[in-house]
Each structure stands twice: as C-alpha cells, then as structure tokens.
Amino acid sequence: MSSQRQATKLGHSLPLVAKFVRTRCDLENQIRGVLRTFGILFGKRVGGFAKRAEEIIDGELDASPTIQAVVEALMRARANILEQIRHLEAKVRLIARQNKVVRRLMSVPGVGVITAIGFAATIDDPTRFKRSSSAGPTLV
Q: How many CA atoms lie within 13 A of 134 on its CB side?
C-alpha cells in the first residue's frame, strides 16, 4: 500500500486514537471516583498517576480488599490502554516517516504528526482544487 493511501486511511481513523485517550481519562476519573466514595482523595503527587495509585493501594486500601481489587483492576485496564496508545502512536510515526508530504507539513513549526497526517488525508489529492482558496471550504 502506498504511503499516501496509508496516510489517508490512518487520517480517517484518527478519531479512534482520540477515543483511546478519552477512555484512559475516563478510567482515571473512575478510579478517583471509586476512591472518593470511600473518603480517599486522590490528589496530585510528584511521580504521576500510577505512582499515586500504588501509594493508595499499598497504604490506604489495606482495610478494604474489595475496593483494592476494584482499583487494581481499573489500573490494569489503564495500563493496557496506555500500551495500545503507544502501539498506535508508533504506527502513526512510522507512516509519517514514510510519507514525504506529511514530513514536509511537519517541518512547519507547531505542526505535529497527527495534524500533518489529518491534513494530508483530508486534502488527499491537491490537484482536485483549481485554486488554493477552494481548499478552505472543504475543511469546514
């Protein structure tokens, strides 16, 4: 499959990547909510979400093995989703490296992989526009 076709195909599946990220955030909020129900505030600590969750599981949940099991299961689901996100991001970067149009778009300051692939997939064949001003209405 040509790199342009790959970019187009991936560009149309970018909402799926965004859904994974939202699911991760939803799981984190679910963990916070479960803990809050039992009077445990998650808070923010140095080291990130996973480290704080480990502190809570090891320290504050010893008295409640049921809640500990729920939080551990949610943390495993979160870790799995993070692994899938890393896998998808690696595929996205590989496609970006193989596509000269996407690489050129990424040379613009502030344009990253996702934006470049999405734009390239949306425009697809620039020769279909008689003028550059005709491309704008396509993006709306």
A: 7
Reading the block at residue 103, the tokens are 């690489």
With contact defined as beta carbons under 8 Å apart, do 31 and 74 qualify? yes
Neighbour tally for 7: CB within 10 Å = 24
Report whether 103 contacts 7 (CB < 8 A).
Answer: no
Name the residue with tokens 């990547």.
Answer: 17
pLDDT tens digits, the chain, 140 residues: what are they?
555 565 556 655 666 666 667 777 888 888 888 888 878 887 776 778 888 888 887 776 665 778 888 888 988 988 998 898 888 888 888 888 888 888 999 999 999 888 888 888 888 788 888 888 888 887 77
Cβ proximity of 7 and 102 under 8 Å: yes
Q: Give the chain's domain count.
A: 1
Q: Which two tokens stand for residue 56?
A: 């809570």
Q: What is the pTM of this model?
A: 0.66
40: exposed, middle or buried (C-beta count within 10 Å: 0-12, 13-18, 19+)?
A: middle
